[in-house]
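ok new one. same drill as before - structure tokens go in, u give me an amino acid for every spot. 345 of them this time. try not to just spam alanines like last time pls lmao
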């Protein structure tokens, strides 16, 4: 297997731009994968059938491409993808040098997509490919953005449903631009939206927030979320927690503003209490000994200061990543993009 190192996003896109685009496909499906070798073939079988149904119902959407972005898999995922490209039409593969995170891998797929409409989705079949027919219908009806909304999540555990619901509530309470509750990455986007997303320079990317940031009014398609077809999820509770932090801190500065108000309230309360001590001393000539209350106040305020410093640290950490201006991802090899993306032997 030929291994071609393409140093960064800019170089890869420069090479890709030399490819003839007169045969631009109507529909691009972007699928980030990480250690999903068992899921590739079942996914492609259902997706291929769904796309054939789309072409039969809407002849103007007959051409397609399926872009897999291998986010540094350590199993045989890349080999499974290469083998599947020989069986299924329009399969293209981008392999990253390591795991850069799902949202970055998704961004890589959007970068190389050429369709007039683009659909990001997961390979685990929890988001059924058959819903694509309804999405395409709404797109052809004039919608620029069609969100897939999970109307039924009974296949997920109670903890996952509860944590997801809590995240959406907290996020939409504080975010500058709310996101659609129960909508994941599974959606259809017109080329106009994809081109806007490709221009955004963030290194710490929260794609669900970026979709709605574009400002396009979204249509919706409801569906039942299915059980995972094979394998197991790569999302631990710790990764989900960090993902939620990235989403909130990347979409709003409200947490910083909260501590400004909270600090002002504490300062006011402290001033009032100090005045009470002064008046009490002048009136009664002594103060009541209170070591326990004093140490309690000190510990509470110390804890509050540490929490506030932690919130500041989260934002400073994101500034640190942004100002370094490193490439968003590094492409190791690619398949199916013609000779323009192939390097020297």
């Amino acid at each position: 297997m030929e291994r071609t190192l393409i140093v960064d996003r800019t170089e890869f896109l420069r090479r890709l731009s030399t490819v003839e685009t007169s045969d631009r496909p109507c529909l691009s499906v972007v699928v980030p994968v990480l250690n999903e070798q068992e899921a590739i073939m079942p996914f492609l079988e259902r997706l291929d059938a769904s796309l054939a149904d789309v072409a039969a119902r809407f002849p103007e959407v007959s051409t397609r491409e399926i872009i897999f972005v291998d986010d540094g898999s350590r199993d045989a995922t890349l080999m499974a993808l290469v083998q599947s490209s020989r069986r299924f039409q329009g399969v293209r593969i981008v392999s990253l040098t390591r795991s850069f995170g799902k949202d970055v891998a998704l961004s890589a797929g959007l970068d190389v997509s050429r369709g007039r409409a683009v659909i990001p989705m997961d390979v685990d079949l929890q988001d059924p490919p058959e819903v694509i027919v309804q999405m395409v219908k709404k797109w052809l009806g004039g919608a620029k953005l069609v969100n897939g909304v999970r109307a039924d999540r009974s296949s997920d555990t109670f903890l996952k449903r509860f944590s997801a619901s809590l995240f959406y509530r907290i996020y939409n309470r504080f975010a500058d631009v709310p996101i659609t509750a129960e909508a994941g990455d599974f959606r259809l986007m017109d080329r106009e939206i994809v081109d806007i997303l490709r221009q955004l320079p963030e290194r710490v990317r929260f794609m669900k927030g970026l979709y709605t940031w574009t400002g396009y009014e979204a249509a919706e398609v409801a569906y039942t979320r299915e059980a995972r077809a094979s394998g197991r999820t790569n999302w631990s509770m710790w990764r989900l927690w960090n993902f939620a932090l990235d989403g909130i801190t990347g979409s709003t500065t409200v947490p910083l503003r909260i501590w400004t108000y909270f600090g002002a309230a504490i300062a006011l309360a402290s001033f009032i209490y100090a005045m009470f001590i002064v008046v009490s001393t002048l009136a009664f000539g002594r103060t009541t000994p209170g070591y326990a209350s004093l140490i309690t106040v000190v510990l509470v305020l110390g804890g509050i200061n540490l929490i506030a410093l932690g919130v500041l640290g989260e934002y400073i950490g994101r500034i640190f990543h942004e100002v370094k201006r490193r490439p968003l991802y590094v492409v190791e090899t690619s398949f199916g993009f013609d000779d323009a993306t192939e390097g020297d032997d």
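The chain has a mean pLDDT of 79. and btw The longest strand covers residues 145-152.
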